[in-house]
Amino acid sequence: xxxxxxxxxxxxxxxxxxxxxxxxxxxxxxxxxxxxxxxxxxxxxxxxxxxxxxxxxxxxxxxxxxxxxxxxxxxxxxxxxxxxxxxxxxxxxxxxxxxxxxxxxxxxxxxxxxxxxxxxxxxxxxxxxxxxxxxxxxxxxxxxxxxxxxxxxxxxxxxxxxxxxxxxxxxxxxxxxxxxxxxxxxxxxxxxxxxxxxxxxxxxxxxxxxxxxxxxxxxxxxxxxxxxxxxxxxxxxxxx
Length: 240
What we know:
This protein is an alpha/beta fold. It contains eight helices and seven strands, in the order αβαβαββαβαβαβαα.
């Protein structure tokens, strides 16, 4: 008569199967890093733009993102976005019409994310953390448009990296003073007051409503350096 494996044997088999699956995931993760490094290594000075995927093309923030991206592109900056709809599409569209490269770092999601057609360089990621490294590693500046949890996540990521010295200081621009006002007030009233951040940490970012000011903020930060060398000055000191 056939005997059933013991509970311990079944648990060992399940563990072995899980370990095998996880081990193969390491190679998937490695392939995303390798492809990203290969595709972006020679990217000109770039600006990463973040914002909501939910803004339709007739939304004012879509138009503002497109206009700003076009200014950045014509100023010599490649523009990097998440490759999807909304602000991401607007940023790619503006850059695509400009003089510099339009880059989309696409992510596979069950909803919201579908690649837009305005990408000179298009990369596809399964893992958020691999994608986030690519956003930061080659960025000379960050522009954060209005957005949701994903946008806040990216903003917190770069602020943390700069605050802790894991990444060199780069311009971080929050676009849309009215949109960001409540969050900034909370940072001052709660985070600074309770001592979880220093008041000087609020100087890590700039708030503006003016696209020309956003561009000039980046140039002013790198004043005295050749534009072609900006990528070398900002490329990760993030132990990678």
